[in-house]
């Protein structure tokens, strides 16, 4: 009974009736729980990644290897959050990756055939969060947690794309004004 009450009042995070496996460009933001700076710090407008931040950076780049239909246009690892501008593009890969026609992948291990379907943005970000959480904890940061869910925006035109691309690139330079900056959010009671 309580479970249903909680779910009933919970905010929906995704656009209703939109299939997040479709070819589109997505702007994603995911935060560390409680805005804790696990990934490094900003010095003179430049993000200096620590060991955890380097791990997250590497796992973001791993996504393109893991999902051949995924193109990462831009990203930044900030002290306590990440921004990604990524695209699902099942056409440009040269394979038919439609939802109805999964493509075939040969594995180097046993040369068996495996079927892979296009994953949703939620599944892809879930894979990123799961793999980074496990590895960061293995490095010794046992308290590390991502904030539940993530924010997404479907990029609909070239002006929006350019604004988001520049926002990601310039994000470290604007850290003093960033709502995810723990110092600023304390001042604003966020």
Entry keywords:
Alpha-Beta Plaits; 5 helices; disordered N terminus; globular; two-stranded antiparallel sheet; 190 residues; alpha+beta; single chain; 24% strand
Characterization of this structure:
- With 190 residues, the protein is α+β, with helices and mostly antiparallel strands.
- It has one domain: Transposase IS200-like (Alpha-Beta Plaits, 2-Layer Sandwich).
- It has five helices and eight strands.
- It has helices at residues 2-8, 51-66, 121-138, 158-170, 182-187; strands at 24-31, 40-43, 46-49, 70-77, 81-88, 103-106, 113-116, 151-155.
- The strands form three sheets. It has a four-stranded antiparallel β-sheet with strand order 4-5-1-8, with helices on both faces. It has a two-stranded antiparallel sheet with strand order 2-3. A two-stranded antiparallel ribbon has the order 6-7.
- A hairpin with a 6-residue loop joins strand 6 (103-106) and strand 7.
- The model is unreliable at 1-11 and 95-115 (pLDDT under 50).
